[in-house]
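Structure in, sequence out. Go:
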């Protein structure tokens, strides 16, 4: 099943931050980019748990497409909210699709998994069964603070699970529209502000965690090179195909909160994999 996207807003409810406690993490993200692809509904559907409907847009030619994003960034100071003096720095890339939770009506993301350049990846892999994978991720970037624009943005990942090559250009200007959405705000809410993610745990069960960040103010980018073998392996995007790119949004820096631990979702779908 698939659902067309209605008008969305940055409401006070989704912008409000919940208090942190326990194992919650706070971090400052740098070089945060959201590279979104148009994919065929029938190609994406088998990869998503049946609890969720695919969020879709309609193109000018009346074709309907689902959306999948690659989201690379650098964690500058990954730290426990209760013990902020313990800090780690590492690069990370999330692979996600946009879906609606049919039980709550909430727009959320479905995580295929995450590449993480740190030995600490073993903690969430084994303690919480997260589909996170060890990788070597290198950013080569230059940011002009005066012009508020990237003059160079490159990222290379070496990984058995999801290698990657990415080079972007940055216009330094906010996007004026996002193809297929009823208005710009709706597109920005869906693509930049999902607050909950779901995933298949490494044991095959359904898992979830939530995050918070302030409203992003991204600039519009363009792709010079993009190669994500994982998306090709999943049957979603042809290797090195730039024609399926929907949009590129770039945020130089933003603060994130991650509410931990993740939860195993126990519901009527629990035995469905």
């Amino acid at each position: 099943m698939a659902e067309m996207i209605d008008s969305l807003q940055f409401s006070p409810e989704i912008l409000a931050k919940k208090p942190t406690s326990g194992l919650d993490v706070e971090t400052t993200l740098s070089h945060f980019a959201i590279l979104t692809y148009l994919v065929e509904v029938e190609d994406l559907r088998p990869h998503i748990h049946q609890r969720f409907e695919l969020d879709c847009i309609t193109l000018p030619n009346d074709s309907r497409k689902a959306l999948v994003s690659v989201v690379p960034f650098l964690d500058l100071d990954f730290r426990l909210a209760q013990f902020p003096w313990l800090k780690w720095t590492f690069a990370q890339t999330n692979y996600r699709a946009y879906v609606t939770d049919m039980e709550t009506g909430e727009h959320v993301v479905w995580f295929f998994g995450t590449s993480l350049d740190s030995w600490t990846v073993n903690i969430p892999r084994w303690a919480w069964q997260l589909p996170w994978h060890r990788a070597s991720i290198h950013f080569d970037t230059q940011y002009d603070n005066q012009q508020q624009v990237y003059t160079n943005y490159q990222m290379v990942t070496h990984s058995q699970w999801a290698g990657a090559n990415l080079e972007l250009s940055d216009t330094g200007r906010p996007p004026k529209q996002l193809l297929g959405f009823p208005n710009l705000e709706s597109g920005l809410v869906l693509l930049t502000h999902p607050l909950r993610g779901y995933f298949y745990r490494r044991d095959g069960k359904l898992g979830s965690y939530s995050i918070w960040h302030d409203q992003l103010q991204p600039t519009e980018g363009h792709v010079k090179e993009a190669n994500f073998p994982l998306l090709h392996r999943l049957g979603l995007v042809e290797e090195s195909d730039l024609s399926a790119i929907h949009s590129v949004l770039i945020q130089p820096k933003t603060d994130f909160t991650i509410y931990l631990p993740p939860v195993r979702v126990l519901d009527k779908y629990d035995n469905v994999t």
